Known about the structure:
Elements: H1 12-22, H2 38-46, H3 50-56, H4 68-72, H5 78-87, H6 91-113, H7 140-143, H8 150-162, H9 167-180, H10 185-195, H11 201-212, H12 224-231, H13 249-256, H14 261-264
Helix pairs in contact: 3-6, 5-6, 6-11, 9-11, 10-11
This protein binds flavin-adenine dinucleotide.
Flavin-adenine dinucleotide binds at residues 57, 64-68, 71-72, 100-101, 103-104, 107, 166-167, 170-171, 174, 192, 196, 198-200, 203-204, 207-208, 211.
Amino acid sequence: MMEKLQKIFADRAALIDYVRALSPELADAPVSQTVGGRQAGAARLAQLDAQSYGSSRNYLDGAVSYLSPYIRHGIVTLNETRNLAIQQGAPKQVEKFVQELAWRDFWQRIYHQSPAKIWRDIEPYKTGYSADHYATELPEDIRQARTPSAAMNFFIKQLIDTGYLHNHARMYLAAYIVHWRHIAWQAGAQFFLTHLLDGDPASNNLSFQWVASTFSNKPYFFNLENLQKFAGSVAPCAAHDNVDFDDSYDALAARLFPHSEALNG
Ligand SMILES: Cc1cc2nc3c(=O)[nH]c(=O)nc-3n(C[C@H](O)[C@H](O)[C@H](O)COP(=O)(O)OP(=O)(O)OC[C@H]3O[C@@H](n4cnc5c(N)ncnc54)[C@H](O)[C@@H]3O)c2cc1C
């Protein structure tokens, strides 16, 4: 018979020790600073600034909510979050935030309609490459944050150490994995799900498919100028440390997707 899991602990350190004892393979794994539970979730919700969110959300140091682990695990509901947001300003001032909550709801509905399909390509890639062009294993340099890009290494470390990444960082890293490294989105999605505290098959896999272009009209990609603008205050974005991205969108499209009708047609 399985031993009953302990649920009450003297403090967080005791909880961490207990989990480490249950999972010796995690002995050296970093512990996220994000604290679980309703009290922590409610405190996070109380800090919501849905108005500032609209103008700053794309910046890595913007007024994002950090609510995703609590929403993902049902500790804070989408409904109470939406209700609080719409009290914070006129509809136009808070609509961006409410739209993002709607994305979560949309992805969940697609997932619940066909849970078995969540690891399959919804449509073909529009990158000019077929699905079998993409490698199925994530290379070690990505797993270990030793890629040629300092910004990507920063995001990978943050993902592993904290279990959280800003939405824009997720888009950059997902695009790097799929479009620069030619790795199937499924391998990137699996890596994210292993580390994200908000890891969710619907939001994660369908967002990956949006980046990859198997659930959108064209692939998402970025250049150094965009990376520096939105991530430069947080991540190391110097050109000499991120040479793969240092070009115009047209030049990058020609290099990354030379056969794509969606981009070059
Ligand atoms: C490649 C990739 C993988 C992702 N994987 C996950 C995942 O596993 N789990 C997850 O919850 N979200 C995922 N997202 C969506 C989004 O990045 C996170 O929900 C958001 O960054 C979490 O931070 P936050 O709570 O500060 O969000 P905020 O920007 O403050 O948004 C508020 C809430 O709205 C929801 N939300 C915001 N943006 C999105 C979005 N694009 N799609 C769906 N819901 C959204 C989340 O519940 C979030 O907590 C992923 C996005 C990408 C591009």
